[in-house]
User: Fold Response regulator transcription factor from Roseomonas nitratireducens.
Amino acid sequence: MRVLVVEDHAALAGQLVAALAEAGFVADHAADGEEGHFLGDTEPYDAVVLDLGLPRLDGASVLRRWRAAGRDMPVLILTARDGWSEKVAGLNAGADDYLTKPFAMPELVARIQALVRRAHGRSRPEIALGRLLVDTAGQRVTLDGQAVRLTGLEYRLLSYLALRAGQVVSKTELTEHLYAQDFDRDSNTLEVMVGRLRRKLGDGAIETLRGQGYRLVAPS
Assistant:
């Protein structure tokens, strides 16, 4: 799953991207409000971490423009001030949650994970599909209670399908949510990963609907 980090402080941005990557996300970074607005307006992100104090275009303005354009991805705002008025302004602009700097990185990751789950109509981190269990908080996958070893990319693919379990997900949607903006997106790579997951989960877990995409179901 993809997250956009809009933060002008280079060191903090690097820490955010690294922490999100460790939690199974792929993150794009924008260093100012104009770039952040452009990326959020043109790329399909599962969530956004948005600093309010940005150069060129402030975060609240970025968020208002996204919402006015119908961009409804979950947004967590960051503010360096503890004043209630800035938090209220961010929430009124359309934010879903907020954190005040400084903050603990595990808390930010947990909040992003929760926002993504709620956006898909799920309140718990564990997604159970018969014999298959996907723990989106702990990044653990088990089949019949036994751990399934996955690469980072395999886990991102499976967790996205698990959040959309029972629904058909197109190849285009999967590639847009699995890879960073500047990654060379090759549909053949996606097919290879699906083949690997089928070998690890059983042939019946991921269905192919010709011309439509893939669907995750409970393994037989």
